[in-house]
Amino acid sequence: MRVAITVDGTTYEDEVEPRTLLVHHLRNQLGKVGTVIGCDTSNCGACTVLLNGHSVKSCSVLAVQADGADVTTVEGLKAPDGALHPVQEAFRDNHGLQCGYCTPGMIMSTIDLLAENPSPDEHDVREGLEGNLCRCTGYQNIVAAALDAAQRLKADASPRVERTGSTTTTAAMQETGGAR
Q1: Are the CB atoms for 101 and 46 separated by under 8 Å?
Q2: Could you give the percent of the chain with pLDDT greater than 70?
């Protein structure tokens, strides 16, 4: 089947097998290897991406289901000048990772959480990230990173990923007139 999916601001048109998972399409056909495969069963959340502005586990979405959609991967968060997204900065500064395998999914889920609830407390963060597993940490630094990210996003007048109805746009696309 032919699909057209906008990934990190670039529209890709590809032939995909109807059974191809979005995570495999992103990694194998588009080279978006920051979206990791943790379990292929939708249990760990390592493969989380934003689909039309909402976090989804890309191992539970078929590529054909994303036809016409906007997908943001962890690679798409970086600004054109190479600056990290405020959530990425918060994870780095708060040591919200250990081995790093779950980090892309945690970051993407945190972005969705903060879009829904820009002022979460610790309970809200723990509940909002409960679908993402980390096998290395005790989650303390991940929660601290998410809370810090909320403060950074409040201070940042123009977050680089935002929801606009049913689509995800990036400020980099808006500033450069990137493809949609």
Answers
A1: yes
A2: 87
